[in-house]
Amino acid sequence: MLPIQDNQADTKTWNEHIKKYFEGSTWFNGTWLFNECYIYRRLAEIFFNSKYWFDYDCFERQKNDTFKGSHQAVFDLASKMPELILPMSEEKLEIVYHELIQVCLWGNATDLSLLTNMTQEDIQRLQAIEKDLLAERRKFILVDDTEKLWEKLRSLQGGRIDFVLDNSGFEVYVDMILADWLLQSKKASKIVLNCKTIPWFVSDVMPKDMPMMFENCLDPDFFPAKETRTQQDVDDLVIMVKRWQGYVANGQLEIRSHDFWCTGLSYWYMESEAPELFNEMKQSDLVIYKGDLNFRKLVFDCDWPVTTPFKDAIGPSMANNFTNIITLRTNKADPVVGLSEETKLDIESRATREEWRFSGKYAVVEYN
Ligand SMILES: O=P(O)(O)OC[C@H]1O[C@](O)(CO)[C@@H](O)[C@@H]1O
Q1: Which residues pair with 257 in a beta bridge?
Q2: Which parts of the chain are beta strand (E)?
């Protein structure tokens, strides 16, 4: 693990982490979490040291191409949106909430790292927004704290809600659908999107990807298969995305990034390594951590017994200071916590380890 050799704001910190925790370790014997993060920082170093390519995102084309492939679900969701944001009873709000959380959860299954193993049908099934298909997918959620989160949201009025984002393209599009609904239902008055600072795990969101996603949605030639949609479909998408741009303009939607999200450390270190971020995020009423990597960092990427309570796995600093975090994660790596004894026995008897722990078919929704 050679020191990083460039002059960025995070260079010193990266090299301190290598020296303090991983001196002498190599690609072959270091820890998976740190090494996998390190490889993305080394990639960034190549571009930072170039004369003309220093802000080049070598994954941008792949990110946009994959988003194009999600056109059907993009238009389906945009057409559904007007009816989801009408004023409605508390009871109906709860139903919509449950659907949107699921859409947002499964959006995480369709990131670039898994797409290579999936057929077009697999992807469409995961992106489906019909009620029956969502109900069907509930069987694949091994820990489901959506009800606990609703208890929190039910009484929330005009709060601040943070997303610690994961992938761009379809995943962040559905994150925006949820964010929009939270603002329209007045549960939130401010949404903060926390992005990565460098090209990260191929498809993660950087700040520049947000306005680009909005522009792509508004570009009539961006999505393929024009013949499959009506003028109404196009209008619904344009109205919704212009509303999103409006949120940015009026400050209801803030797009931020912080170097801490692109270190190789677990979030157990957030308080000591990034105290200003830690204290700032404490002001949020709810923090939504998206995806597998965020989950791994929350639970220290440890081989916990799978019945370890989520609260214990995220460590005392997080657990005691953030009684308002939720993770929406499809399982793409070994660490799993929070299972009941019953679910553990059940899943171990009917699925292989690969299937339920890292194929992306199963998921956990865990709340502290
Ligand atoms: O995009 P997500 O959901 O954070 O997934 C990232 C995951 O993909 C992998 O790179 C490969 O499975 C994992 O090491 C990593 O945790």
Answers
A1: 195
A2: 141-144, 159-164, 188-195, 253-257, 286-290, 325-330, 363-367
- For domain 61-367, give the fold: Rossmann fold (3.40.50)
The closest of 367, 284, 270, 286 to 328, measured between CA atoms, is 367
Residues flanking ligand 1, CB < 6 Å: 36, 108, 111, 113, 166-167, 201, 291-293, 296, 332-333
* ipTM of this complex: 0.94
Ordered by start, the domain boundaries in the chain are 1-56, 61-367
198-239, pLDDT tens digit by residue?
999 999 999 999 999 999 999 999 999 999 999 999 999 999
User: How many angstroms does the Cα of residue 238 sit away from the middle of ligand 1?
Assistant: 32
CA 21 to CA 13: how far, in whole Å? Answer: 12
> pLDDT (tens digit, 9 = 90+) per residue, 315-355?
999 999 998 999 999 999 999 999 999 999 999 999 999 99
Q: Let me know if 356 is exposed, middle or buried by CB neighbors in 10 A (0-12, 13-18, 19+).
A: buried
299 contacts 323 by C-beta, under 8 angstroms: no
Ligand 1 atom 16: residue of nearest CA: 293
